[in-house]
Design goal:
Shape: globular
Strand content: 15-25%
Helix content: 40-55%
Distance between the termini: 59 Å
Length: about 180
């Protein structure tokens, strides 16, 4: 009903909708994953938004777009981010490979120095757990903050190997 109202009143070209993320069956409050913290464009006029192959920055919104934000978490949609540990590991493996390929292909800037990698991992953890209030999610907030910090390490490791062996399929080259 809310989206019909927004469309009928022409309130926006691109509408950001709250995403209620669930982690192993529990709604997330903080981490930048809380419903109002994590709004994404899911309702839009085709000519105002396009998609890329990037993982977390996958939308390109035209500059002249009229943006509208739904700010009521009850009007959001439910997203079961991770239901099992296997699903979490598989998704992280898939996403870090895509991000490493984007870095290898020059679409995204890699973290080349060990210092920058370490600093980025600490920054991700501090941002998610403290600044974005992941501590409100207790143990699950700690787990996700650590996992997303580790995500940066995995992406960098995969990029380094692609760069070292001059191919996205470095595993084949290592076996030779």
């Amino acid at each position: 009903k809310r989206l019909i109202e927004i469309a009928e009143k022409d309130l926006g070209d691109v509408i950001y909708i709250p995403r209620l993320n669930y982690y192993f069956g529990t709604p997330i409050k903080g981490l930048g994953w809380g419903a109002i913290q994590d709004k994404i464009p899911r309702f839009f006029k085709k000519e105002y938004l396009s998609f890329s192959d990037k993982i977390h920055d996958f939308t390109d919104i035209k500059n002249n777009s009229k943006i509208y934000h739904i700010n009521n978490s009850e009007e959001g949609f439910i997203h079961f981010a991770y239901q099992t540990v296997d699903q979490l590991i598989n998704k992280i493996n898939r996403y870090t490979t895509i991000e490493a390929k984007n870095q290898y292909e020059g679409k995204k800037k890699p973290l080349k120095s060990l210092f920058k990698l370490f600093f980025q991992m600490i920054k991700v953890f501090v941002s998610m757990f403290f600044i974005k209030k992941g501590f409100k999610d207790k143990r699950k907030g700690l787990e996700l903050s650590l996992i997303m910090s580790f995500y940066r390490l995995l992406t960098t490791m995969k990029y380094r190997l692609m760069n070292q062996y001059h191919t996205e399929n470095y595993g084949i080259e290592i076996e030779k």
